[in-house]
What we know:
Largest sheet: none
Number of domains: 1
Strand content: under 5%
Shape: flat
Number of strands: 0
Structural class: mainly alpha
Amino acid sequence: MRSVVILAICTLAACSDAGAEEEQKYQMVERQNATYPEKYRARELCKQGQRVADAYLNAKNEEKYKIWKLRSDIECSLAEL
Length: 81
């Protein structure tokens, strides 16, 4: 049911399928790494966030790209600390 809702929202928002898939992967990485040390978690979220941003860039979705680029930049900065 949740997948149907997410798919409907993405369709209405003109999300790319690739971007939505990468967002789902980001959420999975976020859940799976919740108990790991912050630096490791940030490094994994940095990598996946960059993939999400790249997917939206390739889909020419500027609004989503800017959001995910900023989010991944923050995670990458945390990974470097």
